[in-house]
Amino acid sequence: IQQIDKWEEDSIKKIKQTAEECRQILTEDKNKHFIKIEQKLSQFTEQLKQSRQEDEFNEINLDEFKTQLTKLAEELAQPSNIRIQQDSTSLINKFSVVVSSGIRQENKYNDTGLNQFKRKKSEELDRSPNNSNPQILTSYINKSSIISSSIIPNIPVDARWAQNGVTVAGGHGQGNATNQLDRPFGLFVDDDQTMVIADCYNHRIIQWKMGDNNGQVVVGGNGRGNRLDELNYPVDVLNDQETNSLIICDWGKRQVVRWSRRSGTTQGEILIDNIHCWGLAVDDQRYLYISDTDKDEVKRYQIGDKNGTLVAGGNGKGAGLDQLNEPRYIFLDQQQTVYVSDWNNHRVMKWNKGAKEGIVVAGGQGAGNALTQLWYPQKLFVDTWGTIYVADFMNLRVMRWHKGAKQGTVIVGGNGCGEGANQFKGPDGLSFDRHGNLYVVDNGNHRIQRFTIE
Q: NHL repeat boundaries (predicted)?
């Protein structure tokens, strides 16, 4: 009896730990763009400012600006992304559970006993006063996506968020101090609401605890470079809970690298090189998914494998259903369905496992600001209902597209370019915490904004 009680207690702890660990990925957030054309973009911005100050706007100038912007948009067609992978097989039935040591243990239990255990533990969590989202546990018992430490919160279909965001990281201007960010791109949010951010132009990964005024540099921060102790425009980051490490898309070095989170780590290791990576995701079998903006494809890699298996695109640059045009971020659902923010096609594509072509699930009507359109979509997230959330970069808004919908709705932003609490200067990455609060990487304002779910 004591052994059974101990097994029950340990199992509950493991399940809770898994549920919390799986709350950390989202996001991936992340935007790794404008790196190639930062100087041109800055010059373009200065031209606009100067013309505005001198009141020299005329039809010729506007046409010139439009031409420049079009060229910039065309040049923005060469980087990659991140998503979550899950398994419909019952986690406990497989009993491939991540224990605190990060080692998987195989245990044999029958379905009847395990189902009774699941029901009992779900009921206990439902009654727990500290459990704001009781459905979360059940969904994570039914899956084994514990590698990437990301959770999919149970967001109500008609959820609303506060329209004014609160700055929870950065927001003190562009810079490299520990209370500043410089063109942040991707992020994920831990179960304790700690943010881990790809601080792209500072060539570092910075960790920011909720409520702190300063972040802590956990990777890089040694300047831009190609050594193993340096980063070069990191654009995406995810947490590998099983190895207690961070996997980083090091865009400038054309590498995917892994850094241990253990204290004393001074350099990373190269997992994959010679890839123009942008987005990252990892599944429960420890396969890594990477978008390649040069080859317009998404591949799945086993750790140690340098070649990978094609899972989306790979048929040249284009707008066909079997093509992508600079895929950025990626998201994986429980069935290993790959969602891709198809940057230069202004759409989100869904590729079912093993499919030869994708399905347009958001946008695809050309660049524009109508509710049927996207304009350079960035980070995306798909909840348990199949609802898609996407950072609509050039439209300065975050959109929600319900499953099967022909148009989306604006959930935050869409109030013009600016520094206001309800404005963005390029929403890039996004993520949710376990309560359903929304985190948006406000790239041009060098800050992370948190929008509370109502």
A: 417-454
